[in-house]
Amino acid sequence: MGIFKTRKNKEFSYTPRYYKGEGNPFKIKHMFDDNRKTIHKANLKTKIKNAWEDYKSSTDKNSNKRFLYILLVLILLFLIFIEFDLTIFLPKN
Length: 93
Known about the structure:
The chain is mainly α. About 35% of the residues lie in helices and about 0% in strands. The chain has one domain. The protein has helices spanning about 45-55, 60-80.
């Protein structure tokens, strides 16, 4: 009778009409899987090393400068938020 058996899902051999690519068209894959090294499982040291290499190999130098400017502004805002005495960076008259 099959009281304790679970029902098996139906399987269909559907192929898309206009698909002419290779592999499974229904496989969900990230857009940058083939180009990045930081998505694979590794220990923390390897992940940081790979991320730094990706950052250094970036061809867009304007984005690197923009990132540094944003980082400096965020650090400055953090120091102001915790009420850090910024006068130690100013020269004495």
